[in-house]
Amino acid sequence: MTRRRPAVALLGLLLAGCGISGTEPFTYGEPLKGDDEGGGVQLHFVLRHATHPVLRPGAADLPLQDRLDLLAAGPTDTERAAGLETSLRPGVRLSPEDVGVPTADHATVRVDGATLDDLDPVASLQIACTVGAFLIPAHQALGIPAVIVIKAAGQEEVVKSTCPD
Amino acid sequence: MRALGLRSRLVVAFAVVSVLTGLGVAAVSYLMVRDLVLQSAQDAMVEQLRADVSRQTTPAHPPTRAELDTLALRYNAVVVFGNLHANGNGIRLEDVPDHLRGTVHAGRSVVVQRAELAGLPYAFVGTALRASTGRSTGIELYRAQGLTVQQGTINELPALARMVILLALLPAVLLALIAARGVLRPVRDLRAAALRVTGGHLDTRSVVRGSDELTDLARSFNTMTAELERTVAELRRMEENARRFVADVSHELRTPLTAMTAVAEVLDDEALELTGDAATAAGMVSGETRRLRRLVEDLVEISRFDAGVASLRPESADIGEMIASTLHARGWTGRVETTLPAEVVAPVDRRRLDVVVANLVGNALRHGDAPVTVDLVAVGPEVVITVTDAGTGLPEEVLPHVFERFYKADSARARSEGSGLGLAIAWENAHLHGGSLAADNSPGGGARFTVRLPRGRS
């Protein structure tokens, strides 16, 4: 009996490890990058109550004010066709305050036409991530969020740009 | 259950070790090879996707439904943008595991997941499509690759391991047999030597080879048999001396005894004219002289047996007639009941058979009660002579010793007419004929002596 025990254990181990088992998803190497001119403006809209990035044509150094205008304007028809929405109220105007050059990791954005109470968390993230995509170079984007201060009707809110990019 | 022999135990131990080692190695290699095979398949799949993506121009704007179809063809993948998707790469979006989609959607770079699709193993890869700047376009790509070939390779491993284990079993068993032989040969030699010693060959010595524990055992065995041989030789020498002494003394006594016997006979004749103490003394001297002469004759006889010089002069004879004449010569005919069929013939030494019958019947008449019976019967290749008395029989503890020299069943009866050698001489004579003599008690209770003699000499 004593002699059989290791054999049984070994057999159990073998049977347990037999065949090809399913796995959880696991990450695999560096991100894939396509071949292009290096432009593009990333905005963050909403799909199924979570932020979702889109890359529109445009210069990579498009000023932040222009980006915020595009964000406030909401998804294009094509994007809407793909189910993208925005959580920002129509008519809201966004303007940068105290914005450094790209590669800085913080900025302040003023919101006109809405109070902080009108901005739900997803809307705040849309702003933070769109600004973050302007500030933080893409190769740093993962894991290092920008810190964005959103000011509306005299109130302030601090949001980190933690979105799928 | 009988414990296994040394050889079987060695073989089993070697086989178990071999199989266990084989299983262990097989298990470890199986896991390693499996991971390697899968890893290499996944590597190839991801590298292919990476190469395909890096060759293509990233879509410059969010795609329409129609553009998605084009992208699916271009990337040979399921392409997803928002709620829209286009199937490709031979799979549909529903085939892609939800968990993988969730992980890709959460922004992880390249994600792989193994899962079953229609009962077959697949590896799925998913990624967000990024521009050269690294910015995500919000477009996701998914591909799948069947792992059936890899599964086939992996499934062959156990059979391969089984074959290797079986192949390894052969040399293991062979080695065990060789090891067992190395151990068993000295043991077998020792056993054979011990058997030879048991058979009386005290000069047997075991061959001493090598310098292990078994060699020590062989050496001890040899020392033991040497000592045994020496002791036995010493004992034999002493016994031989004692016998020769008895034989010599008996011989030396014979000559004066012959003269004394002659004198005693004269005394017997004269005794009739003597009176009183002189007559008693004369009778006593005469009787004791006769007794002494018989004792010396018996001693000389038994000395011959001991010296191995007793010779047999067989001649074909009618045993019934011989017994009758023996009884007649002793004057016992009226005192003994006989059943002596005629025509029972066997080759016997007349003088010796006479001694045997006379000793047995005389013994029965002296120690047993009447009637004493002598039966003769031919049974198969043997002639069986039975002498039975009607006494109380021989006590159980006496039976094994009844043929020993000078053995007295009743120590109170220290002096008797017999020499104390009669039954011993009868036993020797029966054996000299190639027969036997046995003592037991008859169902009627009396002592019974059975002589068996072969009817034909081989």
TrEMBL record, chain A:
Signal peptide residues are 1-21
Q: Which UniProt keywords apply?
A: Signal
Name assigned to this protein = Sporulation and spore germination protein
Organism of origin: Umezawaea tangerina
Automatic annotation (TrEMBL), chain B:
Gene Ontology molecular function: phosphorelay sensor kinase activity
Q: Which residues form a coiled coil?
A: 221-248
Which InterPro entries would you find in this protein's record? Answer: HAMP_dom, HATPase_C_sf, HATPase_dom, His_kinase_dom, HisK_dim/P_dom, HisK_dim/P_sf, Sig_transdc_His_kin-like_C
Q: Where is the HAMP domain?
A: 181-233
Q: Which PROSITE patterns match?
A: HAMP (PS50885), HIS_KIN (PS50109)
Instruction: State the SMART domains in the record.
Output: HAMP (SM00304), HATPase_c (SM00387), HisKA (SM00388)
EC category? transferase
Tell me where the transmembrane regions lie.
159-180
- Cellular compartment(s): Cell membrane
Query: Which part of the chain is the Histidine kinase domain?
Result: 248-457
Task: State the signal peptide span.
Answer: none
Q: What is this protein called?
A: histidine kinase
Q: From which source organism is this entry?
A: Umezawaea tangerina
